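Problem: given the chain below (178 residues), write out its structure.
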Amino acid sequence: MTRTSRTSGLVAALALGTLGTLGLAACGPGGGSYGSSGTTNSSTAAASSATVAGAALITRNTKLGTVVADGSGRTVYAFDKDTKGSGTSACTGGCAGLWPAVRAAGGSPSVTGVSGTVGTITRDDGTKQVTLDGRPLYTYSGDAAAGDVAGQGFMGIWWVLAPDGTEMSAGASSSSGY
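Solution.
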């Protein structure tokens, strides 16, 4: 019985490790679901993304300086694989599970302290995603609390944004720890 329990535990640990690796690969330069033709598991994406009530975007002071955050104070990120102004999100499938879209309850998100142009796009699942200067916005599931910036520079393709919508390159993280 002890041997069976240890074997079951090892199998479970290996399965979880494999799933985590596949999820991270989905957000990297060579993997995942990119482009509007990718499929989205809308129940997963919707469950991991919060619709922002009230102020859709605010600013927050972090160790990187003043950054754009969602209405809950969670840092928002831009994804290099998105095409500015295309009206689509390139982060779908497993990527959307790690990088939840910043969702808007309505068509005109409200902002506080953000000087870039704020709008929305319609995702494949019909929900509205907030954009800044034509770039879809995301939060990072690896940020433990409001104001965290752990996703900054992730795999060289995820970036925190300044209030004017420009990418902040300071404090880029390495993907080696993931």
